[in-house]
Write a structure and sequence with these properties.
The protein has helices at 2-6, 8-42, 44-56, 62-73, 80-104, 108-116, 121-151, 164-173, 176-204, 206-223. It is an all-alpha fold and 224 residues long. α5 crosses α7 (121-151), α6 (108-116) packs across α7 and α8 (164-173) runs antiparallel to α9 (176-204).
């Protein structure tokens, strides 16, 4: 406990770096995954192939990714950008299927109604398909955020400063409190980010709560 109190400034600085790296990767992964997920949904003959290839990205070991990315793109191996790009790739691997599944969950009758009133493909996607797919996509985004925040700690292995530093430095110096502080900080960040995403989802997609209310009422009535 004494170590934690004496190093609050260090823990805070590492937490800010960790959150920044994770947030950039999650946002980038989301932006890239949306069009890929839409393509996989739109072209059913390619869906299985696209999702399989994208899903395989998550199976690449992180240390191998840290070596391959600088070799391919030319940026420094021991840098934030290497970690962020790797995390974004993993985020795409998770989010793409969520986007595809979310779009697949939209009722075809609703799509047909939008077409009938004159909605073009672009307008229908942003005003009908994407909003109604929102709850499923949000669930995938929450999983992606939690995974990214946890995985970002491996950046310490290539010298990137974030909460992973507390793991490696604490292990090397055999300071249990330092390792424990890192674990707690990562968990707290993940929980807070998940809470923020959940609240944003409720604020931006109020229809999802209204849709779930009748189902809850029916379940209660059935038990009664």
């Amino acid at each position: 406990m004494n170590w934690v109190l004496e190093n609050l400034d260090l823990i805070w600085a590492l937490t800010v770096d960790h959150l920044r790296q994770s947030a950039i990767a999650v946002v980038a992964g989301f932006v890239i995954a949306v069009p890929i997920g839409w393509l996989a949904f739109r072209y059913t003959t390619l869906r299985g192939t696209v999702l399989t290839i994208i899903g395989l990205l998550y199976t690449i070991p992180s240390l191998a990714m840290f070596i391959l990315l600088p070799a391919v793109f030319g940026f420094p191996a021991l840098s934030d950008i290497n970690l962020i790009v790797a995390l974004a790739i993993y985020a795409v691997a998770i989010m793409t299927r969520s986007v595809t599944d979310g779009l697949g969950s939209v009722d075809e009758v609703t799509r047909s109604a939008a077409v009938a009133v004159g909605f073009g493909a672009w307008r229908r996607f942003w005003t009908v398909d994407f909003p109604l797919a929102g709850p499923v996509i949000l669930a995938g985004l929450r999983v992606t955020a939690m995974s990214t925040i946890s995985l970002a700690t491996v950046g310490a292995l290539i010298g990137v400063q974030n909460l992973g530093y507390l793991f490696t430095n604490g292990a090397q110096r055999r300071i249990v409190a330092e390792v424990f502080a890192g674990v707690v900080a990562v968990v707290v960040i993940a929980v807070l980010v998940d809470l923020v995403l959940m609240l944003l989802g409720r604020a931006l997609m109020p229809w999802s709560r209204r849709a779930s209310a009748p189902r809850t009422t029916r379940m209660q009535a059935a038990h009664a």
